[in-house]
Amino acid sequence: MAVALVPGGSAPVFAVVGDTGPAKELGEGSVALNGKLLGKNAPPANYQEVRGKGKYKGKAWTVPQAMVLIFPASRDSADPYMTPERIDAAAKQRFDDWGGLERLTACADAYGR
User: Fold this and answer.
1) 2 backbone dihedrals φ, ψ, rounded to 5°
2) Residue 66 neighbours by CB under 8 Å, 6+ apart
3) pLDDT of 11 above 80
4) What is the pLDDT of residues 67-77, one digit of tens each?
5) What is the pLDDT of residue 80?
6) Contacts by 78-85, CB closer than 8 A, 24 or more apart
7) How far is Cα 41 from Cα 9, in angstroms, rounded to an integer?
8) DSSP structure class, residue 46
9) Edge-to-edge, what's the strand order for the sheet holding 13-15?
10) Contact 3, 68 (CB under 8 A)
11) Which of 8, 14, 63, 71 is least surrounded by Cβ atoms within 10 Å, i.e. has the fewest?
């Protein structure tokens, strides 16, 4: 489970971690995660929209900066196939138990100093 938030935002986005990458490099979010962080309500029309090319110039689905909190060992091994509703409920519960938006904001503020 994971939660992502654009700095200054008030609506966290709940997600799952799909894989791991090289140990010393940052990962990337899915198009769906970026869309949610950007407040998009519909899937992109095509790859040009995602990349901000052609008639979509300036409208790319790129999140300039986001805070991401990952909850280790949070996989539901008994029922690993997650629907969006299950992801939201399970990640929200972990996030709230951890300290929620208030704690994440405090961590981001401390990091920014």
Assistant:
1) -150, 160
2) 4, 5, 6, 7, 29, 37
3) yes
4) 999 999 998 88
5) 85
6) 82/16
7) 17
8) S
9) 13-15, 2-5, 67-70
10) yes
11) 8
- Whole-angstrom CA distances from 70 to 1, 4, 25, 58, 75 are 6, 9, 16, 30, 11
**Contact by Cβ (8 Å): 87, 1:** yes
- pLDDT(108) > 90: no
| Closest of 11, 1, 29, 41 to residue 101, by C-alpha | 11
Give the percent of the chain with pLDDT over 90: 62
User: For residue 113, what pLDDT band results from cuts at 50, 70 and 90?
Assistant: low
What does pTM read for this prediction? 0.83
What residue has token string 């805070």?
67
Q: Are the C-beta atoms of residues 94 and 71 closer than 8 Å to each other?
A: yes
